[in-house]
UniProtKB/TrEMBL annotation:
Record-linked InterPro entries: ARM-type_fold, DNA_alkylation
Lineage top rank: taxon: Bacteria
Species in which this protein is naturally found: Vibrio ponticus
Pfam families (alphabetical): DNA_alkylation
Annotated PANTHER family: ARMADILLO-TYPE FOLD, DNA ALKYLATION REPAIR PROTEIN
Stated name of the protein: DNA alkylation repair protein
């Protein structure tokens, strides 16, 4: 049986799509079917992922991005071409953006920081979800301490002109994560940019700072 048929069979057993299911339920299906794949070679797995993504079904997307992450030990620079094509073709909202970029795509960037200039180009993309991805993809490498070749503040600079609230929340989230690891860098940046930064992004960015610092920064606005 083809992988997508196995996935659909498991979805049917959950009553999906006629009945609501949780992301954790879909991830369990994903793990179960992945174990049954005849080939775990990255080319074969990513081909199956694309078939799932082409359905434009939320649950199939969750499975596809999970499988892509499961073959992370086989990533190469060429994997970027595949992932970027998926980003431009299939990512339409913040949910898919965050799922893909905080796992599979984020891991690829963590493995190869030299890909950052290509990520930076996404800030010019007409799709807000792709613009958001330019910030969100940095979250995984930052959290893993594998971000020495990345420039999160440059991404924030380039996205600051966006009036889309989900883009603002995206780079605000990135700055919030960065503040856990390099708080002074973020504090200095926010002091410098507080007049230009939209309130939505600013509030996200300060969320994890200590109460005193947060109050001081809020008083600037």
């Amino acid at each position: 049986m083809k992988p997508i048929s196995l996935v659909r069979q498991q979805f049917d057993s959950l009553g999906y799509p006629n009945h609501p299911v949780t992301t954790s339920q879909i991830r369990r299906v994903s793990a179960q079917v992945f174990r049954q794949l005849e080939s775990k070679d990255i080319e074969s797995v990513l081909e199956q992922c694309e078939i799932l993504l082409a359905t434009q079904d939320w649950a199939c997307g969750v499975v596809a991005y999970d499988w892509a992450f499961r073959v992370r030990k086989q990533y190469t620079e060429a994997t970027f071409e595949v992932f970027e094509r998926w980003l431009f073709t299939y990512i339409k909202g913040w949910g898919d953006c965050d799922d893909f970029c905080t796992h599979a795509f984020g891991e690829l960037l963590a493995q190869n920081n030299a890909l950052f200039p290509r990520v930076l180009q996404w800030v010019e993309h007409p799709n807000f979800a792709v613009q958001r991805s330019a910030a969100v993809i940095l979250i995984y490498p930052i959290n893993k301490g594998r971000d020495s070749g990345l420039k999160p503040l440059l991404v924030a600079d380039k996205l600051m002109g966006s009036d889309h609230h989900l883009v603002q929340k995206g780079y605000g989230w990135m700055l919030k994560v960065l503040s856990r690891h390099q708080p002074q860098m973020v504090i200095d940046y926010l002091r410098l940019k507080h007049k230009q930064m939209p309130r939505t992004a600013f509030r996200y960015a300060i969320e994890k700072l200590d109460k005193t610092t947060k109050s001081q920064l809020m008083s600037l606005n």
